[in-house]
Amino acid sequence: MKQNVGTAVFYNNSVLLAKRITHYKGDLVNFPGYWSIFCGAVEDGETPIKAAYRELEEETGLPLKKGINFFTSFIFQDYEFLFHTLEVDDFFTPKLCVEHTESGWFDINSLANFPYDIDDNIVRCIFEYNKTRDN
After folding, report:
1. Average pLDDT score over residue span 40-47
2. Phi/psi of residue 82, each to 5°?
3. pLDDT value at position 24?
4. Between vectors from CA 38 to CA 34 and to CA 40, what angle results, nearest 5°?
């Protein structure tokens, strides 16, 4: 089964999300125009945690050597999605790659009535993780 990873970046009661592009090289992408955490496929020969670090750096410009932790997983269509977390010490503005059009920090509680497209599985994972945190 294929694996995808995603990392939710948290600062206090906020989570960093980015809006996905709709098309790449003329093809429709998965979850076009949705707000999401930073995600991507685990490449051949790569561990999921290494993929999480690579994807986060590629999609935000944030080079990290530590801090990302696995939290949970779920099955979606034909792949396993591995949800990771990262706690940061301050707000930062990511240097987005071509896979996203904009980003923003959102109050976690606002995701219950989020006015934009966002995957319910991602929201559920964010809420579940937030329950475990000491804010």
Report:
1. 96
2. -105, 110
3. 82
4. 95
Compute the distance between CA of residue 31 and CA of residue 26 in angstroms, rounded to an integer: 15
Contact 94, 62 (CB under 8 A): yes
Between CA 16 and CA 13 the distance in angstroms is 10
Is residue 58 within a helix (H) or strand (E), and if so which, with residue range? helix 48-60
Which SS3 state, helix, strand or coil, does residue 36 take?
A: strand
75 has pLDDT over 80: yes
Q: Using DSSP, state whether 30 is helix, strand or coil.
A: coil
Q: How far apart are CA 19 and CA 63, in angstroms?
A: 21
Beta bridge partners of 38: 7
| Distance (Å, whole) CA 115 – CA 110 | 9
- Which residue type does 40 have? G
Element (H, E) at 18: strand 14-20
